[in-house]
Amino acid sequence: MNPFGFTRSHTERNYALVAPESHVPAALPHWTDTSGIIVVSPGMGARFAQYFALMAAGGTAGPPLPGVQRFVFVEQGRLQLQLAEQSFILGPGGFAYVPADTTHAMTAGSECRLTIFEKHYRAATSEGPLPVIGCEQDVKAEPFMGDPDAMLKTLLPTTPEFDMAVNLFTFAPGAALPLVEVHVMEHGLLMLQGRGIYRLDRNWHPVQAGDVIWMAPYCPQWFTAVGKEPARYLYYKDVGRDPLEDLP
Ligand code: UGY
Ligand code: MN
Q: Is the distance from the beta carbon of residue 221 to the nearest atom of ligand 1 less than 6 Å?
């Protein structure tokens, strides 16, 4: 309990930092034995949703809305996923991409902590994306813009049927993004490990494992890892669509 109401959480028109101390859990519609924390949503101006699902053993997931694709990342626990008549067990670092309007079932095999990204799918090709099931430990990391101290894993295919990306960044202590990025894509980010400083618009915020950040399109952004351990974050990005497509 903070006796004077201080928090690292901070919301602006074009970004938000939500630290775990600010979480207010609530039931998720159609999920059982699960408490949800919706950390990013259209309520703050985002065009996607990012939430934590804290499932008790035996808890079950509800479906996304029609037309909405889902990406699930297992932070802790064992999740059973039933998809296209196949059954998968996902442990920590496991992930699943479920295309829009694809029947699936998720049951917690043990107490689970999930991060989920959901977005309305915008088609650009005659065939939509196929499901992807994987484990981040099996994905090869590449140096980001040539820097071996900033290693990036791309968890989803980069083919044109996908309109979202989910990546995992690992920064060695002292490493930084090589530029202050300003781009049309939006981000939802979860700090998985370590500490750093995130520049968001005109402010510099100390961040650490458990923090969530929303960055609106064109929000200036930069990061550096501080401390003695690597900093790692998982992040969502919308990709590959015409920016005028949403307009009337
Ligand atoms: O993919 C990205 O835009 C990434 N470099 N942004 C970020 O880490 N804030
Ligand atoms: Mn970026």
A: yes
